[in-house]
Amino acid sequence: MRELDETAAGGPIGARLGAWRLRRGLTHEDLASGAGLPLDYVVGLETGGEWVDRRGRLAALATALRLDAADLTGQPYPPRGEEHAAVRAVAFHLRRRIARPHPDMATGLMMDELEERTGAAAQADAAGDEAGLAHALPKLIDGADRAVAAASAPGRAEAVRVQVHALGAGLLRRLGYKDLAWILLRRARPGTHELLPVLVEEVRLLIDLGLPEYALARVERAEEAGSGWELSVLAAVAQAMAGRRRHADQLLATAAGRATDARESAMVVATRAVVAAEHGGVEEAAGHARAADLSALDGAQRSRLLTVAAAAEARQDRADQAAALLVEADAAAPQRLRLDPFARELIAALAVRTTDTVQATAVRNLAEQAGVR
Predict the structure, then answer these.
(1) Cα 78 → chain centroid
(2) Which CATH class is domain 195-297?
(3) Can you give the pTM of this predicted structure?
(4) 300-314 residue pLDDT tens
């Protein structure tokens, strides 16, 4: 249904929403009632007066229309530029790799080099360097498979294999190839002590699919494999999506207690902003965003927090301030931001709302680079 993307006046999701609503034979009232959302909000999405910035609302709209959330976000997006095209190509290479039942047993990477390259790929992931990660993944997955197959004591190789599969699934998830992401996670060998990264990525995938209850069930499994601040943070987001703010706050308190360094503490504060925004508390979300230590965050995390802050400012009719924050978010991790459906929604909204000449030009340029307008 990608051909229906431009049939309405709304933003990226609003246009698709209108097309699908008509295809299902629903009125605005039918859709609003089915999604449990205000009628004026649903109408505003289709006319350009509103945008989607809450996971729970996206999931509710998709459910009411009997769709996958990706049918509304439009993922995977058409490539914009060489780097995006290179990132998209990784899905083809990983699909081929998944289809091969056994690794090629030709000489692969030495274990030390495999670990070193996996560490570099993890750094690219943290920085939001999707092209760098995409370039490394096919060889890393093949090399890890070979290492496990050839090892007499495979524990070390299995640990790398699990990490590489989780990195690959994360990239596929963000691109919109959620089915491939799930298959890749299933390929990670069960029964090891290194499965926590896979379970954590499964939770992220279920959240992106708009399935918070399933994500919370996965969190319980992940807790059995090992505890950590990240599980509590992800569970808090899932609880917020499900409308349970008190449970989300309790989980964030647990995460704060489990945080072991400045980065993890900053991530907990950033998630407080996400949870507040999910419940419509835009002033609170903006406050948490200002309180977070940006210098302690990696590029991708910093970009995400700045996007949340920008959305909170936009909701308070401060489009110029929102635009400045969004441009800063793009500078922190451009490839990650331009593939984020909520960031793309905000880009489209601000492109017609920003009044400051400099900021308006910057947002319009960003919209062009992201392929939103």
Answers:
(1) 17
(2) mainly alpha
(3) 0.92
(4) 999 999 999 999 999
